[in-house]
Specification:
The complex is a heterodimer of chains A (about 110) and B (about 110). Chain A has about 110 residues and is mainly beta. Helices cover about 0% and strands about 50% of the residues of chain A. In chain A, a hairpin with a 5-residue loop joins strand 5 and strand 6. The radius of gyration of chain B is 13 Å and the shape is globular. The chains are: A mainly beta (about 110), B mainly beta (about 110). Chains A and B meet through strand 5 and strand 6 of A and strand 5, strand 9 and strand 10 of B.
Chain lengths: ~110, ~110
């Protein structure tokens, strides 16, 4: 089946620190992978995506590379800001199964302190 | 227009009330979704509409009744809810019915008293 495993939070970093949030997946077909971000009191925003192996998604200084050999899609940012404080969800969608589902990880809460 | 809108933003209702949540998108997307999100949890899929037809119902209790009047609108009718139904209800849409790249609205924060 399809599932996403995401590192447990919460994560607390100082401003300008390096961020890594680990995400690994299990999929029956050929998934597309996503990172969504949820700021306090808001809905989810698509942060970045990758649709095939070795693709790198990037947006707002965040990056993640689709690694088929390690079934991973780790989120990284070189220098976090206070405004990056949010909950980050890794997710997959498996086109081959024809499913409409997004399979979400449990979410990782990031707090960046000045 | 690249956003999904939801109304109301907040809703408080009693267990005997009937209310509706509304979702709208004008991106020409052909699939629309309802999710329920409890605190500190990921969203859980409730319903999927593809081309205005209900294609997935994730065993949701009948006190939740979805409706898709047209390709831009999605409603969720609520009746006889329980306090445990209190949650953030998120609407999403996607350009493809395979669910790739869903765009989410800001959600309706529902409290059942």
């Amino acid at each position: 089946g399809n599932s996403v495993t995401q590192m447990e939070g919460p994560v607390t970093l100082s401003e300008e620190a390096f961020l890594t949030i680990n995400c690994t997946y299990t999929a029956t077909g050929y998934p597309s992978l996503f990172w969504y971000v949820q700021y306090p009191g808001e809905g989810l925003q698509l942060l970045l995506k990758a649709t095939k192996a070795d693709d790198k998604g990037s947006n707002k200084g965040f990056e993640a590379t689709y690694r088929k050999e390690t079934t991973s899609f780790h989120l990284e940012k070189g220098s976090v800001q206070v405004s990056d404080s949010a909950v980050y969800f890794c997710a997959l969608s498996d086109r081959q199964t024809g499913a409409n589902n997004l399979f979400f990880g449990t979410g990782t809460r990031l707090t960046v302190i000045p | 227009d690249t956003e999904v809108t939801q109304t109301p933003k907040h809703l408080v209702m009693g267990m005997t009330n009937k209310k509706s949540l509304k979702c709208e998108q004008h991106m020409g997307h052909r699939a629309m979704y309802w999710y329920k999100q409890k605190a500190k949890k990921p969203p859980e899929l409730m319903f999927v509409y593809s081309y205005e037809k209900l294609s997935i119902n994730e065993s949701v209790p009948s006190r939740f009744s979805p409706e898709c009047p047209n390709s831009s609108l999605l409603n969720l009718h609520l009746h006889a809810l329980q306090p445990e139904d209190s949650a953030l209800y998120l609407c999403a849409s996607s350009p493809e019915t395979s669910g790739i790249e869903q765009y989410f609205g800001p959600g309706t924060r529902l409290t059942v008293t």
